[in-house]
């Protein structure tokens, strides 16, 4: 079925908008994104604009106007990554949508009329959400993707088909995105407006111009085949922020990191997912360092929780070199459980609070610093007892009285000073592996009247633990 | 709903000078110390939300009598063991019927980190038992721990070696424990609702 209603979201300064959102200090200083190879200004902020810097202006001219202007190399790949983030944000309201080659967004709205009554309400919603995300947008509506795009590019925001047709007819050839050579040829042939171009028979265009121009002509008449794939939200989070200036201390990275974590939070919430681990890479000029692994004791999704854990982990660290950027990744996702603390009224419940405490202790002291006692059924105490993951304690079935405390290693003792209380308990076992034991265990008192667990093995007495 | 004053009274923060005994309601919240005499002197036992100091002559001795009683009293609640002098044994805990508690052992060689961990646990735990073994504790650290416990019903015990000089600290109760050939003994160096007491049998 032919789709007849399209919206084109033209994002004229997406990289700049995103950069300023991540680094708010950019709002107050002159800044421009430049095409390094052509030495042209591509995007500039309000401060630079007020000083006379224009899009398309030569970099040298802009520098002459504002000597201390900050210039950032424009990278289309980076901008398209930002576009993908925006699409993921908009995905909760609209689908299907497509990413265009110009880092813009195309939305097929035929199927959305059952949710949104008319085009104006849908346009208003999209504008509101883009504004919330700090992104400038022009929304063009049209009966084909190209028509919507041309109107958006020219800042014509209309919402009915008739208005669109009329506005389209009024556009000049110069206002289209046809190749410059084609524009010249059309002008040379006396075809100055889009209305004239659209009236030309297709056969004639095919004969006089390339196939590309013929496709353009058909697209203006609503006959357009989309080649892009429908947007599908990513299943893993991987985002990067490049810093305006080198940062020497962790403190300076915390704000951009917070923004990234907020994006992660949004990402997880939209998918109703959570995670136990994120990876933070600090980007340096020359060195590469392993990622900082931030682990949570339970699956979490809120950025505040991640930020607390990260703070605890890095607060006493120093950066080995000035940082140029940060990358945040989250690959191991888990479904957000209906029993997650955020979804129940009382988030201060003891059980969940305990997991949070464990997570924060581990973040600050290291994973291995927090554990729960556990034991298997092996009769040898050194083998039976082990350090389990926090709160994953396991108690084997008990046959005999055992001491509350175990020494890390049994200590040789002089039995002369000890007083036997109870025993012996013979332990001859472990013949199946290389750690066989043949011991006689006793409960005994030491000279300070402490009740101990001692054993005799191969001619020597040893202290193994203390009873309470 | 309890008034603010009632809450303070329940926590034992208001010394009711007319009588050293706590009311039956207060006592019902207290955890038994394991000694009837000590319970009486403490006004019913250890009040939840208290920060207690046990000064020990040596580890694994007199303090274990008090500890065993506390562990049995905090059933099904978390127990934090910060820098214990040996490994708490899972089999030992099971043989003392303490498998219902959630036991968490925290180990760090850095005394600064240990103080932070103790404070963090006190801030975050609503209930349970928090045990911390320290070589010494500064007045500043104890003050911070005491403050961290204000919103909590957890009971915190700081275990330290005998201190040569008894300097003022913000502990609710301070006990000095020792043993000799004739038995186990304690001094109450400080308590909430009474004067110090010396050389009592445990």
The number of helical elements of chain A comes to 15
Structural class of chain A: alpha+beta
Radius of gyration of chain A: 34 Å
Largest sheet entry of chain A? 5 strands, antiparallel
Number of domains of chain B: 1
Multimeric organization: heterodimer
Task: Provide an overview of this structure.
The complex is a heterodimer of chains A (468) and B (202). Chain A has helices at 14-22, 46-50, 59-65, 76-90, 119-132, 145-153, 161-170, 180-188, 194-199, 202-208, 211-220, 250-270, 303-314, 350-365, 381-384, and strands spanning 6-10, 31-35, 40-44, 70-73, 97-99, 105-108, 138-142, 237-247, 273-284, 292-300, 323-330, 333-335, 370-375, 385-388, 405-413, 419-429, 437-445, 451-457, 460-466. Chain A has 468 residues and is an alpha+beta fold. Chain A folds into three domains: 6-220, Reverse transcriptase/Diguanylate cyclase domain (Alpha-Beta Plaits); 237-363, DNA polymerase, Y-family, little finger domain (Dna Ligase, domain 1, 2-Layer Sandwich); 375-466, no CATH class. In chain A, the strands form five sheets. In chain A, strands 8, 9, 10, 11 and 12 form a five-stranded antiparallel beta sheet that branches. Chain A starts with 5 loop residues before the first strand and ends with a strand. Chain B is of the alpha/beta class and 202 residues long. Chain B has seven helices and nine strands. Chain B has helices at residues 4-11, 24-29, 36-42, 62-73, 90-95, 111-124, 139-148, and strands at residues 51-56, 78-82, 87-88, 102-106, 129-133, 155-161, 173-180, 183-190, 197-201. In chain B, strands 4-2-5-6-1-7-8-9 form an eight-stranded mixed beta sheet, with helices on both faces. In chain B, strand 5, helix 7 and strand 6 (155-161) form a beta-alpha-beta unit. The longest helix of chain B has 14 residues, at 111-124. The radius of gyration of chain B is 16 Å and the shape is globular. At the A-B interface, helix 14, strand 13 and strand 15 of A face helix 4, strand 3, helix 5, strand 4 and helix 6 of B. Strand 15 (405-413) of chain A pairs antiparallel with strand 3 (87-88) of chain B. Chain B: Keywords: Cell cycle, Cell division. Chain B: InterPro entries: P-loop_NTPase. Chain B: This is SulA-like SOS-response cell division inhibitor. Chain A: It comes from Idiomarina tyrosinivorans. Chain A: Residues 23-151 form the UmuC domain.
């Amino acid at each position: 079925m032919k789709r007849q209603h399209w919206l084109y979201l033209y994002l004229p300064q997406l990289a700049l908008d995103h950069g300023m959102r991540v680094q708010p200090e950019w709002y107050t200083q002159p800044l421009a994104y430049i095409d390094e190879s052509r030495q042209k200004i591509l995007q500039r902020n309000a401060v630079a604009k007020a000083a006379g810097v224009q899009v398309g202006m030569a970099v040298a001219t802009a520098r002459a106007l504002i000597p201390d202007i900050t210039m950032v190399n424009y990278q289309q790949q980076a901008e398209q990554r930002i576009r993908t983030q925006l699409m993921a944000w908009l995905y909760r309201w609209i689908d299907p949508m497509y990413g265009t080659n110009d880092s813009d967004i195309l939305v097929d709205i035929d199927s959305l009329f059952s949710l949104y009554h008319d085009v104006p309400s849908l346009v208003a919603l999209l504008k509101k959400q883009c504004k919330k995300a700090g992104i400038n947008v022009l929304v063009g509506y049209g009966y084909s993707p190209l028509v919507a795009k041309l109107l958006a590019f020219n800042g014509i925001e209309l919402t009915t088909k008739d208005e669109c047709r009329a506005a389209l007819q009024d556009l000049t050839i110069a206002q289209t995105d046809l190749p410059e050579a084609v524009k010249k040829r059309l002008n040379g042939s006396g075809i100055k407006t889009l209305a004239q171009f659209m009236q030309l028979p297709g056969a004639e265009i095919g004969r006089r111009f390339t196939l590309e121009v013929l496709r353009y002509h058909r697209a203006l008449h609503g006959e357009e085949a989309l080649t892009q794939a429908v947007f599908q939200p990513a299943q893993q989070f991987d985002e990067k922020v490049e810093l305006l200036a080198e940062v020497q201390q962790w403190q300076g990275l915390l704000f951009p990191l917070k923004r990234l974590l907020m994006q992660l939070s949004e990402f997880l919430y939209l998918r109703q997912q959570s995670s136990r681990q994120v990876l933070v890479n600090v980007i340096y000029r020359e060195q590469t360092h392993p990622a900082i692994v931030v682990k949570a004791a339970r699956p979490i999704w809120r950025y505040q929780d991640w930020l607390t854990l990260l703070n605890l982990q890095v607060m006493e660290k120093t950066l080995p070199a000035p940082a140029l950027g940060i990358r945040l990744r989250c690959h191991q996702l888990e479904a957000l459980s209906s029993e997650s603390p955020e979804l129940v009224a009382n988030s201060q419940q003891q059980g969940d609070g305990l997991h949070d405490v464990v997570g924060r202790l581990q973040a600050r002291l290291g994973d291995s610093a927090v554990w729960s006692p556990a034991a298997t059924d092996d009769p040898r105490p050194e083998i039976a007892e082990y350090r389990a993951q926090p709160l994953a304690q396991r108690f084997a079935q008990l046959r005999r009285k055992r001491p509350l405390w175990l020494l890390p290693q049994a200590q040789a003792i002089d039995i002369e000073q000890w007083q036997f209380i109870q025993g012996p308990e013979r332990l001859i076992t472990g013949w199946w592996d290389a750690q066989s034991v043949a011991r006689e265990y006793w409960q005994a008192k030491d000279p300070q009247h402490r009740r101990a667990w001692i054993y005799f093995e191969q001619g020597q007495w040893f202290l193994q633990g203390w009873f309470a | 709903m309890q008034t603010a004053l009632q809450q303070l009274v329940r926590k034992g923060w208001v010394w009711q000078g007319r009588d050293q005994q706590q009311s039956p309601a207060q006592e019902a919240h207290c955890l038994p110390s394991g000694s009837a005499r000590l319970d009486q002197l403490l006004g019913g036992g250890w009040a939840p939300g208290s920060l207690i100091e046990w000064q020990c002559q040596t580890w694994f001795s007199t303090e274990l009598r008090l500890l065993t009683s506390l562990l049995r009293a905090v059933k099904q609640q978390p127990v934090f063991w910060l820098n214990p002098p040996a490994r708490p044994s899972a089999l030992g805990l099971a043989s003392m019927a303490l498998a219902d508690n959630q036991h968490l052992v925290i180990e760090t060689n850095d005394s600064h980190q240990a103080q932070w961990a103790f404070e963090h646990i006190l801030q975050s735990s609503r209930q349970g038992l928090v045990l911390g073994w320290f070589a010494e504790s500064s007045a500043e650290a104890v003050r911070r721990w005491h403050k961290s416990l204000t919103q909590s019903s957890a009971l915190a015990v700081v275990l330290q070696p005998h201190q040569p000089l008894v300097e003022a600290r913000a502990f609710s109760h301070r006990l000095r424990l020792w043993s000799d050939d004739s038995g186990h003994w304690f001094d109450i160096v400080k308590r909430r609702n009474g004067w110090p007491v010396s050389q009592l049998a445990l």
